[in-house]
Amino acid sequence: MERLDLDLSRPPPLPGTVEECHRVIEALWRALGEFQQIQARVEELEEQLALGSDNSSQPPSQDSTKKRAERKGKRPTGRKKGAQVGHPRHERALVPAEAVDEVRHYFPHGRCECGGSVAVRGFRPHQVFDLPEIRYRVVEHRVYEGRCGWCGQKHQGRLPDEVPRGQMGPGLVAWIGLMTGRYHLSLREVEALLEEQWGLRFSLGAISQSQIPLQAWLGPVYNQIGEAVRKALIAHADETRHYRGRSIYWLWALTTDQMAYFLTHYSRGKGAAGELLGDFQGILVTDRHGAYNDHPQDSHQYCWAHLIRNLERIAGRKGQAGEDGERLLRAARLTVHCGKLWQQSHYPSDRYRRRLERLKALFRRELEQAAQRHGDNKTGRSCRKLLDDFPRFWTFPDHPGVPMTNNTAERALRPYVIWRKTSFFSQSHRGDCFRPMILSLVETCKRLKIGVYQTLRTICAQGMAEGEVTFRLPLPEPQPLPVASP
């Protein structure tokens, strides 16, 4: 750009000719264009600095200190911490008498101070819970051999099928799987805990090798969960990063309220989503990731929580874009509030349904006006993309029972995200296969309120004794969706 050398201490001299006037005007227009580019870049950088978990897909753990303070800031209530006066009491229920391990009796003195005899009429139970001193159990299996007294042929006994061929029994293998898959301990921590709690010493290699047969035994139950999830009427899908060393893979999740199925894949595209969904024909709830868009539009529900975060980002912009974002954000929040009230009424209310139809028309009108007003800039492109996705946000009124958010899938992925932060990820293909299997079992057992350890122990015992696992989880049959009143 041509620079103008002006002395700001005094007014600049007027150009003497028409050519000089044109030169000055052109230079000013170029300067104005560059200034607008710089201003747009500054606004873009300010927007990036303002990004957080409330207006983007960034997880809360990556929020800045300022963002965390703003998120946690609450108005003080003036009450002290802890239980409040008048709150309902929560007391531990007494264990039945037949389940008590030991009973100790404490009687009063037989004679009162006044000289009378004391008659026992009842007792007040006081139960104390404690952990026993634990020690590992060793069973020595002696396999004898002998020779025939006539021909000298050698004969040898054999171990029964139910006896493990290795040094780890089903309880120990199940415990190691529980510590890694449920409580996210590293192999070194499992090694230390084995010695600290049980007095057992196994090498890291032996602990790692114990997961090889466990992975094979988990296969039938893992496949059962996958088949059942794909037959569900409503399912939630989501994905997060999975690392193998320095390579980026992806962990996919397909979940319901009772089941969770995980899958690792090298891709985050439509091929991986298709492998996850398989022959799923129900209603799918997801975020706005385009890999799921091969699913039919009329049975695909986008997450409104993700939409609100996207609109928060637009509302944080300056000028007209921010004002349009505020109106869109207000309409989205009203829709979520009305949708929740409609769901809480168990869908017979025509009043909430009519209100949802009005909010739908309002939201579309605001999007169309914002898209037209902002043209081809960032806000305009965002609004046009929302208009393209518009039908996928409004599946829930046509299919009552469909949630408006994808929280079910996000809650299923959260334990893995924590595990990922506290471990060295996966180092092999075997680890890539083991993690989704153990996560599927753990999360499904948690949702079914079934003990994870006892389930693992049953699977390991069958695998060691029979070589084939016939155990199956009591998964629920698909239930019909609620029907709205006409």
Automatic annotation (TrEMBL):
UniProt-annotated stretches for the region Disordered: 49-94
Chain ranges of the Transposase IS66 central domain: 165-431
All residue ranges annotated as the DUF6444 domain in the record = 12-92
Q: Where is the composition biased (Basic residues)?
A: 68-90
Ranges of compositional bias, category Low complexity: 53-63
Origin, by domain of life? Bacteria
- Enumerate the InterPro entries for this protein: DUF6444 (IPR045618), Transposase-related (IPR052344), Transposase_IS66_central (IPR004291)
Q: What is this protein called?
A: Transposase, IS66 family
What taxonomic ancestry is recorded?
A: Bacteria, Pseudomonadati, Pseudomonadota, Gammaproteobacteria, Methylococcales
